[in-house]
Amino acid sequence: MNSSLELSYNTDTTKLVIPEYGRNIQKMVRHAIKIENSEERNKAARVIIKVMDLINPNTRNSNSEEHAQKLWAHLHIISDFELNVDSPYKKPKKE
After folding, report:
1. Is pLDDT of 5 > 80?
2. What pLDDT digit, counting tens, does each position of 63-88 carry?
C-alpha cells in the first residue's frame, strides 16, 4: 500500500456554490476558467452544461428553453461570474 496516499475531507474544501451540482462540477468550472483558448473554453462550458443537466434532472421543466437558460445562469454563478464564454443567453447580474 502506498503510504503517501493523501485523503481529503469536505471540511478541508471550499464551500459549494450550488450544492445540487456537486464538487466535481465546481472543479470543472474552475478548470474551464483557466483555459486560455476561447474556443476550447466554450467547448468546455457546453460539456459542463450537459453534465449539469444529467446530474440534476430536477431542474427540468416543460419549457426546455427556460431550463437551458437556468443552466447557463447557474454556470455563471458557480464560476463567480469569472467564466468568459459565449453563452446563448444574457449573463445574469452578480447580486
Report:
1. no
2. 788 889 999 999 999 999 999 999 99
Q: Which residues contact 79 (CB under 8 A, 6 or more apart)?
A: 29, 30, 32, 33
| pTM for this prediction | 0.81
Q: Which three cell numbers stand for residue 78?
A: 458557480
Map grid coordinates 483558448 to a residue: 37
